[in-house]
Please model this.
Amino acid sequence: MADGEQSVTRVEERTRVVGAAKGASGDGPSPPTLRCSVDVTAVPARPVGAGQYTLRLVEAVAAGDEVSLVLLARRGDAARWRSLAPGAEVVDVAPAPRPLRLAWEQVALPARLRTAAVAVHHSPHYTMPERTRLPVVVTVHDLSFFVSPEWHERSKVLLFRRAIEVAARRATVIVCPSQVTADELERWCPTDAEVVVAHHGVDARRFSPEEADPGSDLVVLGGIDHRLLQGAPFVVFVGTLEPRKDVPTLVAAFARVARRHPEALLVLAGGPGWGGDAVERALHAAGIDGQVVRTGYVPDDAVPALLRHAAAAVYPARYEGFGLPALEALACGTTLVTTRGTAMEEVAGSAALLVDPGDTAALADVLDVVLSERGTGDPDRDDRRRRGLAVAAAHTWSASAAAHVRAYRLAARGGRRRARGTR
Model:
């Protein structure tokens, strides 16, 4: 069994615990519809990472018939959610600024939940209403605020460390997107709640080896840089430029092979995040401005085109809760280069080319290989591509939604409280 397939099996084994608690094997009558609220107030207008997770999860849960959704949104943001989940009840009552929104969650949301007549509340972004008596499911995306707090603004470290500690004590069920994250949670913040591992999915409508409309990819690539339209080979990083993504190591590695591949480009597809000045310093030191394309924030529809035509998608993150761009690259049939010992390895396994985090020389060697093999019938590359497509096919948002629904039902029954620090 391939490593990527084993990772899927491990997730199924974890979520199967929730299914067993239902006392049903899938036969017999369907369970009654569960009325569940989801706090979608943290999803920005340009969602990445956790925002994309919330969007796709809500869409997939709403497409099923096991849960009746009540979506709690920011004021003025109702149209987006009504379009995404037409059958859901959307209540746009939360203030937009983060400090006010967080205060609203603690002061006003508990009362709103009492009148909403829901059985379970899902907080999909670390924090939760601490005074509610409802069963609460909390998604903890990663433990980077504990593992390496220097990767974040101090205010966010204080906020999210406390939020995770509160969830560990008070949530009924905690959802983690990977076993790596669940293990880190146990290490840093042992929880009394049931922990459910549910991998993210990939949107197969957008991320696939074939473009939906012939020629549309070239239009996108030409709008980014004319050299991409002319067929220049490139490697691409997709994501926010922030410390834990370790883009400086990618820049330094590409600089080592740039002279051997003078026609090759490094495409950095993402907006700057906190701590992005390290990327600026790395680019200045590398002296390869003519071979670097910086796109800034990339619209959702442009990402698949970049992935499909890249010699490789490179995701050198030192730490990640899941690494959705890595899965999206596999779904496009793209060679994926990522880091060992991370959630990306858990998901991709042998479908990816793996290097140790922060190893510039090893990453440069791999970049040299993928740029050299581009356009050749390399059997190893073709085999990785087949394995990558199989991994991506096993990770659907409907499967992720099903795992979340089981978590909701477990929470509705009060979960299974356990002794602190035990499995």
User: Anything to note?
Assistant: The radius of gyration is 22 Å. Confidence is low (pLDDT under 50) at residues 1-26, 419-423. Residues 3-201+397-412 form a domain with the Rossmann fold fold (CATH 3.40.50.2000).
